Amino acid sequence: MKILVVGGGMGGTIVANNLARRLQRELRAGQAHIHMLSASERHMYQPGLLYVAIGRMLPDELYRDQRSLLDPAITFEVDPVEEFRFDRNQVRSKSGRTHEYDAIIISTGSRIAPEAIPGLAEHSEIFYTEEGALKLFKRLSGFSGGRIVVAVGVPHKCPMAPLEITFMLHDYLKTRGILDKTQLHYTYPIGRVHSLENVAKWATPEFDRLGITYETLFNMKEAKAGVLLSEEGSEAAFDLLIAIPPHRGMEVIERNKLGQGGWIPTNRHTLQMEGAHRNVYVLGDTTNLPISKAGSTAHFEAEVVAENIVAEWKIGGPVRQYDGKVFCFIEASDNRATYAMFNYNQPPQPRAPTQSVHWFKTAYNRLYWASARGLL
Q: DSSP letters of 144-191?
């Protein structure tokens, strides 16, 4: 059996390692083969970008060699896929080679699209890339006071990141002694401060307690020097604009016309591509599922996909369904944190933030690499 994993992010790495554990005997006997095609030889811990932006983590800490995270039995190549040929169980990669498979897992991720909003790239700081996080850190280091606006576009990955950067900014400004010279203002595109109702109910009084102002029903329309305009007709003046831009799926998905906006239509329980062959699976940010685009989402999905691929081969059918499970830490203020755990049917119930959860989140910044290897 030939299994092809397209993409070396969290979902692709975990599913490949999970498959390698389940198929140890078959891999040794040459009866199974797991092949990963990635766009990069390095694997980034993306949640760490938040910490880089406020000077609490160095860029070098974000990366590991992708090969080092994979089971030795997995064939790994930096040769991104350019064309999907589902009818022939093939893909064509950038090198021009054709790769065949019996089962394929697409986990290509997502990308920021600030160009969707005129002026946003030119007038805002965006921490979703290493370059952007470092640029924001330099801006914050030289910031002496004024109005900081955190503006949120949708859809975006890391669903708690807008709240986290706002709370972390509060602590950063307090530590620097310029909190009394700064106004923090937060905007969100729907009628509450977060898409998840219970998360919004938790975050709103936290904002009120800290003096963070907010405006909901604010959909970004255009950014100009010193002012952000909304589709609803309001304006948010700023001295520093930090944007969470809308995201899209990767270009290869759009070029192959696999899904609008780069999101592949995916069965919410089986994680198979809708309308495609049964041997095409989709993970993480690449799906169009109505669930948070987060590392934990990809992790839980990867476990289901790996188990079902092996079951399909060995007993002729799947044995598990994905229930929409997601787990997200939420950094709050004063070295405290909480978390949101939920699925398709059970909404999150964030508890009062504590220092112990904050320290657990900090520890996870290191434990992530064990998680990627499938050890957690």
A: -SEEEEEEE-SS-SSTTHHHHHHHHHHHHHHHHT-GGGEEEEEE-SSS
Is the Cα dihedral 300, 65, 359, 338 positive or negative? negative
DSSP string, 9-55: SHHHHHHHHHHHHHTHHHHHTTS-EEEEEES-SEEE-GGGHHHHHTT
Q: Give the C-alpha separation, 148 to 332, whole Å.
A: 18
Chain mean pLDDT for the chain: 96
> Does residue 59 have a cis bond before it (omega within 30 degrees)?
no
Judgement on whether residues 88 and 46 belong to the same structural domain of the protein? yes
Q: For 111-136, what is the mean pLDDT? A: 97
Other C-beta atoms closer than 10 Å to the C-beta of 335 total 13
| Low-confidence winner among 54-58, 262-266, 361-365 (lowest mean pLDDT) | 361-365
Domain C-terminal end among 247, 274, 305: 247
In terms of residue numbers, what domain contains 160?
126-247
Q: Looking at residue 96, what DSSP letter applies?
A: S
